[in-house]
TrEMBL record:
Gene3D superfamilies: BFD-like [2Fe-2S]-binding domain (1.10.10.1100)
Annotated ranges, domain BFD-like [2Fe-2S]-binding: 2-51
Record-given protein name: BFD-like [2Fe-2S] binding domain-containing protein
Lineage: Bacteria, Pseudomonadati, Pseudomonadota, Alphaproteobacteria, Rhodobacterales
Organism whose genome encodes this protein: Poseidonocella pacifica
InterPro entries: BFD-like_2Fe2S-bd_dom, BFD-like_2Fe2S-bd_dom_sf
Length: 80
């Protein structure tokens, strides 16, 4: 199913890019911008973003790596 009509990006393209990014770097934070770059494209109108993000949320690869969670809270604790 096409998610981004401007750039002809499908849900399968998004999920494949996410899987590739996660396999390449286990600690990476995956964003829509990184997915566009990985696919060699740039967003145009941005109208697809809600559906784009919903597609991303359907992937297990979106999860923030455990060691990168709560960094702001952990930094506050170290300063106190
Ligand atoms: S539909 Fe994705 S940028 Fe326009």
């Amino acid at each position: 199913m096409i998610v981004c009509h401007c750039m002809s990006i499908s849900d399968k393209d998004i999920l494949a890019a996410m899987a590739w990014m996660r396999a390449s770097d286990r600690q990476t934070i995956i964003t829509p911008g990184k997915i566009y770059r990985a696919l060699g494209k740039k967003p145009d109108c941005g109208g697809c973003l809600p559906h784009f993000i919903a597609t991303m949320k359907g992937s297990g690869d979106l999860e923030v790596p455990h060691e990168l969670r709560h960094l702001r809270q952990n930094n506050k604790r170290h300063k106190e």
